[in-house]
């Protein structure tokens, strides 16, 4: 035994030698306070777990383990090095009523993230009537915050009040943090008022609470900062970071710049990465990217947090190209991206529709073995949807282990952007079936889907859900309901919703005006516009386009001229969509010269303007001019789009230029890389039918997929009736009835075909089929 005792000093690190004294005497006699102090000093000098264990071995061998002072330090340092099991073992061996020992294990458990254990120990303290001090209450409150246990936190507050700790600044700050975390700033203010001596920590807790809640409450953070100044208390770095967060949320540039100036004068936050990142975030959200770029450029050490702040800021400002540029710069500087950076990079590719770059980021995530979280996976689904790769988007969506309402909304939006409204409805149905509660985005998406499908029954059911759950109070939802009813032909219901909106915005008025125009009620649209002007509500270019469409329906040239004059008075003559609509309106009203003059004296840099003028020539049967303009467009290096080719094919069809039209149709894929859509096929079928080449048109239609053949079949059926080709007409009519069983125009066409060929029984049968389905073709009317 004596040999073993003499060997013990050699186990300790050479830098921390045990003082020379006789181990035999230590072993034989009770330890004195002086010896405990020496071992306590040794424990404080331990720099790693190895040296700590060696000192612990000496303490254990020499019988000093029951010392509360040494036990507390062992508990603390084992926890500090992350060895909570050993810490707990020491605590269990010498457990007694000494509060410092309990505090040591409480702090250790909190620092190692075991908040549940902290609260269990706190309850044991209370049960054993050992008592509390500020440290035990503070760390228990922090654990309640981390665990989201507000009720238990309020119970700790009661204990703090009973034992007189609620007036303590340290405890009071933790209580403010508790109430702020759960959005109860009234409770936080009461705690603040009870604190006897308020220091910078107390004020900072209140400022941080208001800053984190955001919204208009962030103004209160500045009020507390003023109160802090009036009490001659100087803010610290944490205070300024919280004030910058409040300024960023309020987009309060002047206040943010003042905080920045104060920090420079006092030398606070210099070379501090958190403070500089907060400054960058504030300047970006206040729409001053030059200052943010200046601060970012001067940072000596750019961590992943500062890069993320810059990239996120540019994304929020609607500058995805700048954000993606910084993402690439970050990678080039060998800063390893985290999941937040990668999600931001994916969002950039989503907004820019850069599929290739998005795929490379996705591949990088797979290579490095990152486990995709919900945010990153949702961003990938959004990116693939916006880049027209719905198959990959749906695959990612299907393998998601957990889905929230945002992921469902993104998948719905992807289907709607790609015009798959039925699939969007299926996604919404699945979301409701699994019990996920729709939010505002879900409601807007499903209303858009039913609007696209013109499904009045589905739209009414969603409207009922909206009324039951009080979504109708939201103006955006009400506007979408108006649009849905207008699209579904129920303009009266749309007007009722419009009249019920308490606070109508510009979109409300424009939606109702567009609804009237869409349903052919141009007079009502113009009357509503006059009412809107009396309400002194300003308009935008969409309102003017709706007015021009109304003037086209009414043949109202003076109204079109009035809108034209207004453009110049309001300095909106560069609003290309309105100019294009004016060109179309003048053409429809027979004023081709005015349309041509407008086109030649305005911007011609976009394909849409050229399309409008080509369509105007086509309306007037001037195909030669349309083709000339098409050639000129190519010479000026303006790439034609699908609408350009639709206008050219229509013009060729109206002028009977079959070969020219076929040549344009042939070069769509080869020269312009445009895949023909349903409208293009309908135009070329109409062109062939007008020339009497029904067999060629029929051969073309038979090759089309069902989704793209309805319009072309309708044109071919009308041609069969015109050319008395009853046999082909019957085949096409039956196919069309299968494709569009709820379209009254189809039944009318097929019935007329049978009637004109003398097959009155068949004509009656088709009309009865339409009657049983409740279909009725709207009667024609004249505006004269």
UniProtKB/TrEMBL annotation:
PROSITE patterns referenced in this protein's UniProt entry, alphabetically: PPR (PS51375)
Protein name: Pentatricopeptide repeat-containing protein At3g03580-like
GO molecular function, one term: RNA binding
Domain of life: Eukaryota
Pfam families: E_motif, PPR, PPR_2
Keyword Repeat included in the entry's annotation: yes
NCBIfam families xrefs: PPR
Keywords: Repeat
PANTHER family found in the cross-reference section: PENTATRICOPEPTIDE REPEAT-CONTAINING PROTEIN
SUPFAM superfamilies linked to this entry: TPR-like
């Amino acid at each position: 035994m004596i040999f073993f005792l003499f060997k013990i000093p050699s186990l300790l690190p050479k830098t921390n030698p045990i003082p020379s004294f006789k181990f035999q005497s230590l072993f034989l006699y009770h330890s004195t306070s002086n010896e405990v102090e020496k071992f306590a000093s040794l424990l404080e000098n331990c720099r790693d777990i190895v040296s700590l264990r060696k000192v612990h071995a000496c303490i254990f061998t020499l019988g000093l383990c029951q010392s509360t002072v040494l036990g507390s330090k062992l508990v603390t340092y084992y926890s500090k090095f992350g060895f909570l099991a050993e810490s707990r073992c020491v605590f269990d061996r010498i457990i007694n009523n000494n509060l410092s020992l309990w505090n040591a294990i409480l702090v250790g458990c909190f620092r190692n993230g075991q908040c549940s254990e902290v609260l269990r120990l706190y309850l044991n303290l209370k049960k054993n009537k050992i008592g509390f001090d500020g440290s035990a209450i503070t760390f228990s409150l922090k654990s309640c915050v981390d665990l989201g246990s507000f009720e238990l936190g309020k119970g700790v507050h009661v204990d703090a009040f009973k034992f007189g700790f609620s007036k303590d600044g340290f405890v009071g700050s933790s209580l403010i943090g508790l109430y702020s975390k759960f959005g109860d700033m009234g409770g936080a203010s009461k705690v603040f008022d009870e604190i006897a001596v308020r220091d910078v920590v107390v004020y900072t807790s209140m400022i941080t609470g208001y800053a984190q809640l955001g919204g208009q409450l962030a103004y209160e953070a500045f009020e507390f900062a003023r109160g802090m100044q009036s009490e001659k208390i100087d803010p610290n770095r944490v205070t300024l970071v919280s004030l910058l967060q409040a300024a960023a949320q309020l987009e309060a540039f002047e206040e943010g710049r003042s905080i920045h100036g104060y920090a420079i004068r006092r030398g606070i936050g210099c070379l501090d990465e958190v403070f500089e990142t907060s400054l960058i975030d504030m300047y970006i959200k206040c729409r001053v990217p030059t200052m943010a770029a200046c601060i970012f450029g001067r940072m000596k050490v750019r961590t992943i947090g500062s890069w993320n702040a810059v990239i996120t800021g540019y994304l929020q400002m609607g500058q995805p190209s700048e954000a993606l540029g910084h993402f690439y710069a970050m990678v080039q500087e060998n800063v390893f991206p985290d999941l937040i950076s990668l999600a931001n990079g994916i969002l950039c590719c989503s907004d820019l529709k850069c599929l290739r770059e998005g795929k490379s980021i996705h591949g990088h995530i797979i290579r490095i073995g990152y486990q995709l979280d919900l945010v990153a996976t949702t961003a990938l689904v959004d990116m693939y949807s916006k880049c027209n790769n719905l198959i990959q988007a749906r695959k990612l969506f299907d393998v998601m282990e957990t889905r929230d309402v945002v992921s469902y909304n993104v998948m719905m939006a992807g289907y709607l952007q790609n015009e798959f409204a039925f699939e969007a409805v299926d996604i919404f149905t699945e979301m409701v079936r699994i019990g996920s509660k729709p939010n505002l985005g879900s409601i807007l998406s499903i209303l858009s889907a039913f609007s696209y499908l013109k499904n009045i029954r589905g739209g009414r059911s969603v409207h009922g859900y909206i009324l039951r759950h009080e979504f109708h109070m939201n103006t955006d939802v009400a506007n979408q309901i108006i649009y849905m009813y207008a699209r579904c032909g129920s303009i009266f219901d749309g007007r009722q919703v419009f009249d019920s909106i308490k606070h109508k915005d510009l979109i409300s008025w424009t939606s109702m005006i567009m609804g009237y125009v869409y349903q052919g009620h141009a007079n009502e649209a113009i009357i509503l516009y006059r009412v809107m002007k009396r309400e002194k509500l300003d308009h935008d270019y969409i309102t003017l386009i709706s007015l021009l469409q109304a003037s086209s329906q009414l043949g109202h040239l003076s109204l079109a001229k009035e809108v034209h004059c207004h453009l110049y008075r309001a300095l909106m003559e560069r609003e290309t969509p309105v100019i294009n609509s004016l060109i179309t309106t003048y053409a429809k009203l027979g004023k081709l010269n005015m349309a041509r003059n407008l086109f030649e004296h305005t911007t011609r840099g976009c394909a849409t303007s050229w399309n409008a003028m080509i369509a105007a020539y086509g309306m007037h049967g001037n195909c030669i001019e349309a083709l000339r303009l098409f050639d000129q467009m190519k010479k000026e290096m303006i790439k034609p789009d699908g609408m350009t080719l639709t206008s050219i094919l229509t013009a060729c069809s109206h002028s009977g230029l079959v070969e020219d039209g076929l040549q344009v149709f042939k070069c769509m894929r080869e020269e312009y890389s445009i895949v023909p859509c349903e409208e293009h096929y309908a135009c070329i079928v109409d062109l062939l039918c007008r020339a009497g080449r029904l067999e060629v048109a029929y051969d073309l239609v038979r090759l089309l997929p069902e989704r793209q053949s309805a319009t072309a079949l309708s044109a071919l059926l009308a041609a069969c009736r015109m050319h008395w080709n009853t046999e082909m007409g019957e085949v096409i009519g039956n196919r069309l009835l299968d494709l569009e069983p709820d379209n009254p125009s189809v039944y009318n066409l097929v019935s007329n075909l049978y009637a004109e060929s003398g097959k009155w029984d068949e004509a009656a049968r088709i009309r009865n089929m339409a009657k049983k389905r409740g279909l009725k073709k709207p009667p024609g009317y004249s505006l004269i």
